Amino acid sequence: MPIAAAGTSPLLAWRDPVYILACFAGIIALGLVLVQPLLIGGYLSGLSAYRGRRIHHWIGGALVVAVVVHVGGLWITSPPDMIDALLFVSPTPFSPWGVIAMWAIFAVAALAALRRRLGLRAQTWRIVHMPLAIIIVAGSVVHAMLIEGTMETISKAALCALVLAASVKVMADLRVWRKRTTSREESIARQ
């Protein structure tokens, strides 16, 4: 829906194809941020927990690609604006939020790719991943809401609300902040 609404934006009329591609890559990235908690929480019917996690990894890779296309396209169309954004000196209020979310996405992707090599246990991975995921969600939503651009306001607000709701629901349902116990600790606790 947000992509279709953005496709009718009058702001695209005089834009270069690279800029338009960059804008749509940003919209797709926000949509992928919505899919991620739904996958990991098991809310998409027909997927086992294992398949949901596997697809979560692939969608994470697609999210990185979408962000690279978004930032790369904006860099091509306006390098000075992107330099200002990346250096946190841009006068636009939405820029720092997007840059922070971008670096958090890159950090999660790098850690996921190196997880085995670094020997990160599941609990350590959760401790690192969850704060970064919160930064990604919050930064992406604030970035999108502050931009007055291609995305239509109502569909943008609805997508952002869904991203927030899905993320909060998954964190609450999976009790991500609760300390995980080992099976040995559970058996001792039952005695």
What does this structure look like?
With 191 residues, the chain is mostly helical. It is 76% helix and 0% strand. It has 8 helices and no strands. The chain has helices spanning 2-7, 17-40, 49-77, 79-86, 95-118, 122-146, 153-173, 183-190. α2 runs antiparallel to α3, α3 (49-77) crosses α4 and α6 packs antiparallel against α7 (153-173).
Euclidean distance between termini CA atoms = 54 Å
Low-pLDDT runs: 183-191
| Global geometry | globular
Subunit organisation of the chains: single chain
Percent of sequence in beta strands: under 5%
Q: Average pLDDT across residues?
A: 88
CA-based gyration radius: 18 Å
Count of beta strands: 0
Question: What percentage of residues falls in helices of 4 or more residues?
Answer: over 70%
Write the layout of secondary structure elements.
Layout: H1 2-7, H2 17-40, H3 49-77, H4 79-86, H5 95-118, H6 122-146, H7 153-173, H8 183-190
Helix pairs in contact: 2-3, 2-7, 3-4, 3-5, 5-6, 6-7
Short description:
This protein is mainly α and 191 residues long. The protein is built from eight helices and no strands.
